[in-house]
Specification:
The chain is α+β, with helices and mostly antiparallel strands. It has 1 helix and 13 strands.
Length: 290
Amino acid sequence: MPVRARTGLTLAELAVVIALLGVLGGAIGSVLVRQQRFTADASVRLRLSEGVRDAMEIVAADIRGTSPADTIRLLADSALELYAGIGTSIVCRAASSTAFALAAEHSSDNTLTGFLVQPDTGDLALLYVGDGAGRRWERHRIVSFGAKSPGAGCLLDDADPREGFTLTVQSPPAGTVGRGTPVRFIRRGRYSHYRSSDREWYLGYRRCNAMGASICGAIQPVSGPYRGYDSDRAKTGLLFEYFDDRGEVVSGELPLSVARIDITARAGSPAREAGRRVADSATASIAIRN
């Protein structure tokens, strides 16, 4: 009988196939690794960009809501303390020399009261009162504030009894408070660049006492992380700069002369792209309203 030839790969052919598979597998693995690295770096860049944008938006909103009546309390390169607006309303009627009913809406259904957060005893009420010397904003510590159920109040120009809130302040206003008197609510707080327990640097916020020497509560992270603090203003992670109406730098002892605040946020990450540290930064100039 004839002997059948054996079919299959020789050792040399098998070695070549294995080598080709190894090259192909390595190429595929390299592509996957690069794709994963690109995705991770893109996520880092997005997080850095969001952190920088958050710092600009959050602090800028409070700066725009301040005014000479609110006063800035602390000017530092890494911290800013100020009274920021948290709500507005209109007096509907005076229940006593220190207690006032606030209108929730106009008879046309236009809202007359609005809050970012509801005021409490740690905040201040600014009443726009008038007397023989003219009209001015008077600052009063809030004793109590709360919603009032329908049936015992008023609309601003309608007999329908529907008030929204009751406000009690610590001392009687020196000027006249009557129907239609504007009210603003402000809260004292401090933004600062701080290092957290995870050893990263963040923008933090602390609520402070309404009046007197600054006493602030526990710090809460707002956005970040950012680069660490550096005495070199060109390198530090979060920088506050203050200017008067002529564009000259204002020192920490002259808060009432501040007309503009510049904020620079610099975020950084250990992730590297093209051999460089991934980073992002932004600067915003915010004018303080008159």
